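Record pair follows.
FIRST:
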Amino acid sequence: MELRGSIAGALGEDCIVTGVSSLSAATQVLDLQRVDVVLLDLETSEGEALALIGRTAAMKHRPCIIVLSLAGQVAKAVKAMRLGASDYLVKPCDPDTVKRAIRECVERGSTLGASA
C-alpha cells in the first residue's frame, strides 16, 4: 500500500486526507481550502517544494508543514525548516510515525497563524 493510503488509514475518521500527486495540485488545494497540515516530500522537486513552503508564509491560515526526506539528505530538511517547515521525518517512515507527527503538530496549535 502506498504511504498516502496508509496514512489515511492510520488517521481513521479523525482527519480528512486530501492526497495530491504534484506540487501544482498541492498549490491548488492550498488556494481553495483551509489545510491544517501538509506532508511534503522533498524528493519531488526540491526547488518547487521549498517554494511551496515559502508560499505558505503569506497565508492567513498557515498550515503546519511536515517534510519527508531521505536519510543523508539532512541539508534539504534543514533548508525546509529554515523556510518554515514545522517538522521533518526521514524516509522510509511507517504510518504510525507520520500519524504521531501530525498529532503533535495539531496539538502545538496546528498553524503558525492560529492567533491571527
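SECOND:
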Amino acid sequence: MVTCNGNVCTFSTVCPHADQVFLIGDFNNWSTTANAMEPTEDGLWRAQVQLRPGTYRFAYFVFNARGGRFQDLDLGLTTLRPDARHYTVSVPHAN
C-alpha cells in the first residue's frame, strides 16, 4: 500500500515473519540498501520516501534469515531486474 501526501510517499506492506524488508524501485536504482523499511508492532513494514513528481516502478524485497535469501512478497521476483513485474506509484505535481 502506498499513500502520498504531496511528494512524501509512505510505503507499507505486511510481512510479520520477515527479518528485513527493502523498498526497491526506479527512484533508488533498485538498491536493496537505500530504503530499508522499519517494522511496526502489528507486522507491517513501512518506509517514507520523498519523490519528485512522476511515475515510479517499485517492489518489496524480503530477507528471511531462515531461507537466507531475498524474495519478493507478492510478485515472485528472484532477482533485482527493473523489467520484472512491479507496482507503480504516481506522484502528482503540486498545485
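COMMENT: Residues 73-84 have pLDDT under 50 and may be disordered.
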